[in-house]
């Protein structure tokens, strides 16, 4: 019954947070349903496109989820289930939800502009440029991490003789979960395009289009469970890179909105399947949840502070969310009254997913400890599937395949959005205040650099190259950088609220805590890499250049963050003197 009690307690607490704290925030900031949003005032049919609340909820939720709330809580479970549970719940309500809701609201009140532009309004132009550089570094890690995750869920490994099967594969040929996931994900892209055309060009209403879409999803899943597609890792990385580049450049109604909306149903279905499994297993009395409640303040070489708060990441608070909220979601918000559900509500649902991930790994804890799974995502799928049947049974295999598919779909949606965001911010970096778009740039060099094709190509190529590294070399750095971005985003929204005369005191403790935890982690990373490089104990799996990359990246982000924090302190001091 432990697993059932954990999920029930989480749902109750998160629901109370949404009803009481979320409503209080909306009242403090003055959410105004009568005020026109940027999606209405600046509609351009490409980036500024109004979306129905359910569609925008799907986009926002799918984009912020990615693989983070699955990987993070599972990796952090070494400290015990109680610390992970508390951070997912408390962090979601008072840290992550605050940041996401605040970023969406601030952007909606600033013409749908990014956090960088919001920083400029309260902290100056230099701080804006520094923030954009910082955010682009984080986005490179986001692209690299999720390219790695998606390629890992698609790839077909060579056989014992080193031969690699490519092309279509059937059950009779030994179809694998990865091959199933690959073909369903590719077909899902074409389904999303069809949905976008139906609703935006042929005027099909959301409800009938959704029913058609869900039926089509079921159809391609059935097909994928019988026929898959096989390619090697590098081939998939190239294909994923081409896909995200194209998806980030075309109008949002063609791919971003419909894909994320439809994929959200996979996420809801995944969570529903997990809940059904937890409840039925609890009443059958055969749920094995064996994670210790608390494993101590130090596990291995890692202390609970700051490691836990960096590792859980998206399950409690994520800086990437602030970029989604102010980069794409604010440009599609049709009414301010929906900002609470989309910004705050989505974060709390993600925290619930983090708790479900914790329960999933608890079901297979002993096997996870013996390293029987290649990744946290695989452990997640195995844990939920185990609630329904023994390993190797048809029901186990089907649910495991569906959950693997869901994880890859979430990672792809995050990739779509991250690449589009990087395009926006790359252009912002080179444009002056009187140059709205790259076409208005007066300098030929800046016009080239601000061109959306140039920024997209740069971010995708660098991200995919780094995506070829092992996930362990990327994820730790991504976690610290991402959480540091959360601290800066919290500081930025607080500074803007102070400028416009609204209550920002609820931001102070979360901002200080996130900055302290993440700067500590980055400094520890720098110290650790310096020692490792000095010792020169490099291996093929842990090469010199990878360690140098992590050292320089961590050092650069720590310096940028400290400069931005100093500017933030100056801004708050100035506001206090008014």
Basic shape:
globular
Class based on secondary structure composition and strand pairing: mainly alpha
Note the main sheet: 2 strands, antiparallel
In round numbers, the mean pLDDT is 88
Quaternary structure state of the chains depicted:
single chain
Number of separate strands: 4
**So how many helices?**
22
Order of helical and strand elements:
HHHHHHHEHHEHHEEHHHHHHHHHHH
Radius of gyration: 23 Å
The level of helicity is: over 70%
Bin the strand percentage. under 5%
Which residues sit in consecutive blocks of at least 5 with pLDDT less than 50? none
**Distance between the terminal alpha carbons, to the nearest Å?**
56 Å
Instruction: Report strand order across the widest sheet.
Output: 1-2
């Amino acid at each position: 019954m432990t697993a059932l009690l954990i999920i029930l307690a989480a749902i109750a607490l998160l629901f109370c947070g949404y009803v009481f704290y979320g409503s209080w925030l909306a009242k403090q900031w003055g959410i105004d349903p009568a005020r026109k949003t940027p999606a209405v005032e600046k509609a351009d049919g490409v980036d500024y496109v109004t979306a129905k609340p359910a569609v925008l909820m799907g986009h926002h939720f799918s984009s912020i989820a990615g693989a983070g709330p699955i990987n993070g809580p599972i990796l952090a479970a070494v400290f015990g289930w109680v610390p992970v549970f508390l951070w997912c719940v408390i962090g979601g309500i008072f840290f992550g939800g605050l940041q996401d809701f605040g970023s969406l609201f601030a952007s909606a009140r600033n013409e749908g502009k990014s956090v960088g532009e919001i920083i400029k309004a309260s902290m100056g132009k230099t701080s804006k440029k520094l923030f954009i550089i910082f955010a682009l570094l984080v986005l490179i890690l986001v692209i690299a991490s999720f390219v790695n995750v998606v390629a890992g869920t698609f790839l077909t490994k060579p056989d014992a003789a080193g031969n690699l099967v490519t092309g279509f594969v059937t059950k009779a040929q030994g179809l694998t979960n990865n091959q199933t996931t690959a073909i369903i994900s590719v077909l899902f892209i074409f389904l999303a395009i069809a949905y976008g055309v139906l609703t935006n060009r042929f005027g099909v209403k959301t409800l009938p289009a959704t029913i058609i879409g869900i039926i089509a999803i079921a159809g391609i899943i059935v097909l994928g469970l019988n026929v898959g597609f096989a390619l090697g890792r590098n081939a998939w990385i190239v294909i994923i890179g081409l896909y995200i580049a194209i998806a980030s450049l075309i109008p949002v109604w063609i791919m971003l909105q419909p894909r994320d909306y439809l994929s959200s149903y996979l996420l809801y279905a995944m969570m529903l399947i997990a809940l059904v499994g937890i409840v039925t297993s609890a009443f059958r009395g055969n749920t094995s949840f064996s994670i210790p409640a608390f494993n101590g303040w130090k596990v291995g070489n890692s202390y609970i502070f700051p490691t836990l708060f960096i590792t859980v990441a998206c399950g409690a608070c994520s800086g990437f969310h602030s970029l989604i909220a102010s980069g794409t979601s604010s440009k599609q918000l049709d009414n301010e009254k929906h900002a609470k559900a989309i910004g705050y509500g989505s974060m709390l649902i993600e925290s619930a997913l983090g708790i479900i991930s914790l329960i999933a790994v608890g079901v297979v804890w002993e096997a996870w400890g013996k390293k029987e799974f290649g990744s946290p995502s695989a452990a997640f799928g195995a844990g939920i599937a185990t609630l329904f049947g023994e390993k190797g049974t048809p029901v186990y295999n089907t649910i495991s395949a569906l959950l693997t598919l869901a994880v890859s779909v979430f990672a792809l949606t995050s990739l779509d959005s991250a690449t589009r965001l990087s395009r926006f911010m790359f252009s912002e970096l080179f444009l002056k205040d009187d140059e709205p778009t790259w076409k208005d740039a007066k300098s030929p060099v800046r016009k080239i650099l601000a061109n959306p094709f140039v920024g997209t190509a740069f971010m995708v190529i660098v991200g995919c190259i780094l995506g070829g590294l092992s996930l362990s070399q990327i994820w730790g750095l991504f976690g610290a950088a991402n959480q540091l971005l959360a601290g800066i985003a919290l500081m930025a929204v607080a500074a803007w609220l102070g400028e416009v005369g609204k209550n920002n005191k609820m931001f102070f403790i979360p901002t200080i805590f996130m900055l302290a935890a993440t700067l500590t982690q980055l400094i520890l990373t720098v110290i650790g890499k310096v020692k490792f490089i000095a010792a020169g104990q490099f291996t093929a799996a842990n090469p010199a250049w990878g360690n140098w990359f992590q050292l320089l990246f961590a050092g650069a982000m720590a310096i940028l963050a400290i400069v931005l924090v100093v500017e933030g302190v100056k801004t708050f001091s100035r506001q206090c003197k008014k």
